[in-house]
């Protein structure tokens, strides 16, 4: 290895500091929350004022502090923090009460703790094979719990509520957390040397989860789990025949579901022509389309929109609310942020040193991309609505905590890659005689 | 602040937020493209990139000096396949090596090996039947003999345990026999 090659390697291994991105993030957080402080006439919104200082402070703490402990991908963390900031800003601008944005701030706080735990966990994890079967059993039990003790909510039985004195304290959506364990189990089964038994077990596990989700009528999660299993199977085995067979089986299942279940027929009918029943079943999608149209290219202005007219504007249709408040241009740029996160995730996967880490990274990125596609497509009536939420932005604790935890795993793998690159360079320097 | 003033500010701020988002995305994209290029450079780096050690070829039974692999150092990644086929991670073009011969995986201080199908090879076997290679252990595939060398000091110090077999010295012969013959232990 020549001196010149070694210097090129050292330059290639150095990470971008992302200072400009951090500055832009902090500027967005501060100006947006400061503006919202004066939203109510002649009243100062103290919560927004505090968040105008707290959000930049927490962002700077994470972006300066975490890379000092672990050599994580700072740019990816900045992108994710930007999406979380858009969430808080949009909820503060659109919701009447200040309790909902505060709840979202708490969820994001819990999610950030989950992220840090995720980074530490994946860095420590050496013997992942021991965890596969316990995780598999836990996932099956946890995701089936709503069938036993859950309630019907918005047409699906996929929630568990913790109640006290008849009041629901916390509600958890198990399918959001089982997404992460699904990635673990699939990566564990499909990594290293695959035997027919292992790949069969992976496929059967994915299929069992899909059946449970079908019984719970959680179509969005079902589509996500099915497609992610197929994608990971193909990435691991490159077996086009079986992948194509799986896709065909999924399509046939979808057709059967259309004829067997009325709610599937209703969803498709609403998607095809919501104006057939504009005041009941088609009301939600029509209001969303009107909101997107009203926003135009530059939006109606922060706090000046009427996103509250859309049912569930804070969760399923937050993208439509963003289009109305910020404009379509901003909403498109938001999608570009998701694309950048996915791009960086794929790069982390390709640089991973073990097939387990590579498959886990690909799985997380695939599920993030698919979910974004499903919900944005549903909001703009490109595809039927599926009931999933926009990652990192929509209101909801389960989704936020699980995605931030998954981001932690991704950042942890990126830090392992950086450590391994550093070791390689030190070894090359030793061989070259630069290190004694 | 009056609602009219807020409305003017909010309408003006729309373009500010769009400008911030445009700068954010452009900068993020450029940084990501640069990082991806650097990552590709590191991945394509031949030699020790991502490897935990080397297999040093001691003998290969090939007479021709040009074709002989003797002295070659084959980089060993964390996991993969040893074979002569194109998909092998350690590709060894030798008549005794099958297309897919041995699966290997790194664990701290050792490599665990699994023979593929009917492939044959000699390597240390633990009392419970596992095939592992530690620092200095030999792997023999037909006429091909290799030894494992780890890069890191921690892995290299986890050498194979020493097995000592004591052999009783042979009986002394009669005084007419001038040779005192002792059998010595073979493994030390």
Brief descriptors of the model:
heterodimer, A: 436 residues, mainly alpha, 3-stranded antiparallel beta sheet, 16 helices, 3 strands, globular, B: 188 residues, alpha+beta, Tumour Suppressor Smad4, 2 domains, 5-stranded mixed beta sheet, 4-stranded antiparallel beta sheet, 2 helices, 9 strands, 24% helix, disordered C terminus
Distance between the termini of chain A: 17 Å
Number of strands of chain B: 9
The number of distinct structural domains of chain A comes to 1
C-alpha Rg of chain B (nearest Å): 30 Å
Report how far the terminal alpha carbons of chain B are from each other.
Answer: 90 Å
Backbone shape of chain B = elongated
From the 3D structure, determine the CATH topology of the largest domain in chain B: Tumour Suppressor Smad4
Helical content class of chain A: over 70%
Q: Counting H and I runs of at least 4 residues, what is the number of helices of chain B?
A: 2
Q: What's the story with the biggest beta sheet of chain B? A: 5 strands, mixed
Summing up helix and strand content along with how strands pair, one would put the structural category of chain B as alpha+beta
What is the count of helical runs of chain A? 16
Outline the secondary-structure elements.
The complex is a heterodimer of chains A (436) and B (188).
Chain A: H1 3-13, H2 19-37, H3 46-69, H4 74-94, H5 99-124, H6 129-149, E1 151-153, E2 156-164, E3 167-172, H7 174-190, H8 196-216, H9 219-237, H10 240-260, H11 262-272, H12 283-295, H13 318-326, H14 328-351, H15 355-379, H16 397-432
Chain B: H1 3-44, E1 51-59, E2 73-77, E3 79-83, E4 90-91, E5 102-107, E6 110-115, E7 131-133, E8 138-141, E9 144-150, H2 153-156
Parallel strand pairs in B: 3-4
Antiparallel strand pairs in B: 1-2, 1-9, 3-5, 5-6, 6-7, 8-9
Please give a structural write-up.
The complex is a heterodimer of chains A (436) and B (188). Chain A is mainly α and 436 residues long. The two termini of chain A are 17 Å apart. The longest helix of chain A is centred in the C-terminal third of the chain and has 36 residues. Chain A has one domain. Chain A has a 3-stranded antiparallel beta sheet. Chain A is built from 16 helices and 3 strands. In chain A, a hairpin with a 2-residue loop joins strand 2 and strand 3. Chain B has 188 residues and is α+β, with helices and mostly antiparallel strands. Chain B folds into 2 domains: 44 residues; 106 residues, Tumour Suppressor Smad4. A 5-stranded mixed beta sheet of chain B has the order 4-3-5-6-7, with no helix packed on it. In chain B, strand 5 and strand 6 form a beta hairpin. Chains A and B meet through helix 1, helix 2, helix 4, helix 14 and helix 16 of A and helix 1 of B.
């Amino acid at each position: 290895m020549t001196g010149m090659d070694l210097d090129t390697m050292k330059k290639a291994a150095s990470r971008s500091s992302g200072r400009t991105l951090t500055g832009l993030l902090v500027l967005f957080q501060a100006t947006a929350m400061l503006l919202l402080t004066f939203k109510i006439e002649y009243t100062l919104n103290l919560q927004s004022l505090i968040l105008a200082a707290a959000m930049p402070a927490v962002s700077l703490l994470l972006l300066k502090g975490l890379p000092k402990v672990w050599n994580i991908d700072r740019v990816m963390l900045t992108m994710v923090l930007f999406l979380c900031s858009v969430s808080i800003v949009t909820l503060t601008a659109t919701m009447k009460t200040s309790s909902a944005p505060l709840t979202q701030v708490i969820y994001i706080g819990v999610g950030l703790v989950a992220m840090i735990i995720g980074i530490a966990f994946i860095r420590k994890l050496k013997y992942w094979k021991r965890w596969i079967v316990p995780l598999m059993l836990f996932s099956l039990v946890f995701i089936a719990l709503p069938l036993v003790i859950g309630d019907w909510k918005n047409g699906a039985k996929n929630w568990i509520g913790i109640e006290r004195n008849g009041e629901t304290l916390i509600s958890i959506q198990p399918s959001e957390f089982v997404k992460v364990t699904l990635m673990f189990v699939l990566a564990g089964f499909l990594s290293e040397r695959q035997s027919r038994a292992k790949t069969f077990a992976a496929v059967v596990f994915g299929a069992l989860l899909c059946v449970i989700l079908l019984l719970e009528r959680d179509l969005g999660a079902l589509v996500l789990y099915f497609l992610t299993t197929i994608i990971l199977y193909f990435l691991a085995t490159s077996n086009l025949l079986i992948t194509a067979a799986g896709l065909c089986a999924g399509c046939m299942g979808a057709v059967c579901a259309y004829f067997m279940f009325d709610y599937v027929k209703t969803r498709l009918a609403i998607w095809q022509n919501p104006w057939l029943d504009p005041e009941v079943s088609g009301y939600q999608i029509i209001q969303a389309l009107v909101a997107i149209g009203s926003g135009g290219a530059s939006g109606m202005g922060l706090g000046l929109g009427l996103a509250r007219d859309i049912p569930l504007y804070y969760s399923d249709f937050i993208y439509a609310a963003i289009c109305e408040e910020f404009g379509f241009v901003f909403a498109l740029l938001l999608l570009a942020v998701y694309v950048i996160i996915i791009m960086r995730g794929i790069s982390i996967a390709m640089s991973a040193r073990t097939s387990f880490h590579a498959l886990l990274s690909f799985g997380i990125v695939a599920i993030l991309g698919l979910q974004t596609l499903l919900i944005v497509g549903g909001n703009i009536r490109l595809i039927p609505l599926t009931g999933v939420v926009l990652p990192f932005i929509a209101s909801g604790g389960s989704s936020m905590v699980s995605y931030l935890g998954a981001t932690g795993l991704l950042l942890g793998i990126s830090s392992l890659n950086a450590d391994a690159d550093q070791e390689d360079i030190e070894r090359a320097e030793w061989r070259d005689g630069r290190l004694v | 602040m009056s609602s009219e003033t807020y409305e003017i500010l909010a309408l003006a701020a729309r373009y500010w937020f769009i400008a911030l988002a445009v700068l954010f995305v452009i900068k993020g994209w450029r940084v990501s493209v640069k990082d991806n290029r650097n990552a590709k450079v590191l991945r394509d780096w031949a030699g020790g990139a991502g490897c935990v050690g080397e297999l040093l070829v001691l003998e290969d039974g090939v007479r021709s000096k040009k074709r002989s692999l003797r002295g070659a150092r084959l980089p060993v990644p964390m996991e993969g396949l040893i074979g002569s086929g194109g998909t092998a991670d350690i590709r060894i073009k030798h008549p005794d090596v099958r297309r897919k011969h041995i699966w290997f995986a790194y664990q701290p201080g050792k490599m665990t090996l699994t023979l593929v199908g009917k492939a044959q090879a000699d390597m240390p076997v633990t009392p419970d039947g596992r095939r592992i290679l530690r620092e200095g252990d030999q792997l023999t595939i037909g006429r091909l003999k290799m030894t494992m060398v780890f890069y890191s000091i921690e892995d290299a110090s986890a050498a194979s345990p020493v097995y000592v077999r004591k052999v009783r010295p042979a009986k002394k012969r009669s005084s007419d026999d001038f040779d005192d013959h002792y059998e010595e232990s073979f493994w030390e």
